[in-house]
Amino acid sequence: MQILPLNEVPQFAEQITDWLWQAFGAGTTREFYASIVQSSLNGADFPVTFVALDAGRAVGTVGFWRCDLISRQDLYPWLAALYIDENARGQGVSQALQQHVIHYARQRGYNRLWLWSTFAGYYERFGWQFAGEALEYPHTRVRLYQKKLS
Ligand SMILES: CC(C)(COP(=O)(O)OP(=O)(O)OC[C@H]1O[C@@H](n2cnc3c(N)ncnc32)[C@H](O)[C@@H]1OP(=O)(O)O)[C@@H](O)C(=O)NCCC(=O)NCCS
């Protein structure tokens, strides 16, 4: 398996947009996710979209974002929009993508990385520390996690 930034394999942008819209898009449009994915293709520091490839096929994605929770703009950067293709789940792709973003953030000098989730017990397995509850716009209670990188 190989993990590449999307701007090196932009042919997977539509696939990733569909994944994110289907997984996280309740109440919003495909265009919203298309905008996020497209904005990761212009070479800016944020956002960066990574793609996991297996035999030339996209099997998962993760983002490195400036902001993933507008109620907590004091916190950055974020591991966000983690998604594994249904046929590729349970094979370590999620852990590999998490590790990739952790390494990427560390290489850029960040000493902490954040994520939020609606479910408990998963990220703890990979050493993420629960850091309390937070609010996803407008009123969804979520679990905040941090990873110390240094
Ligand atoms: C969450 C996700 C990335 C995990 O990928 P994966 O390849 O299945 O991950 P792993 O093999 O490391 O772990 C599988 C475990 O995660 C658990 N898990 C997956 N989604 C879960 C959820 N929504 N709630 C609780 N546990 C969950 C599975 O039950 C499984 O547990 P088990 O090992 O005890 O059987 C994948 O299921 C996915 O893409 N889901 C849809 C998008 C999503 O929810 N992303 C995370 C946003 S925070």
From TrEMBL:
- What domain of life? Bacteria
Task: Using the record's annotation, list all stretches that form the N-acetyltransferase domain.
Answer: 1-150
The Gene Ontology terms for molecular function here are: acyltransferase activity, transferring groups other than amino-acyl groups
What are its E.C. numbers?
2.3.1.-
Which spans of this chain does the record mark as coiled coil?
A: none
Q: What keywords is this UniProt entry annotated with? A: Acyltransferase, Transferase
The protein's name in its UniProt record: GNAT family N-acetyltransferase
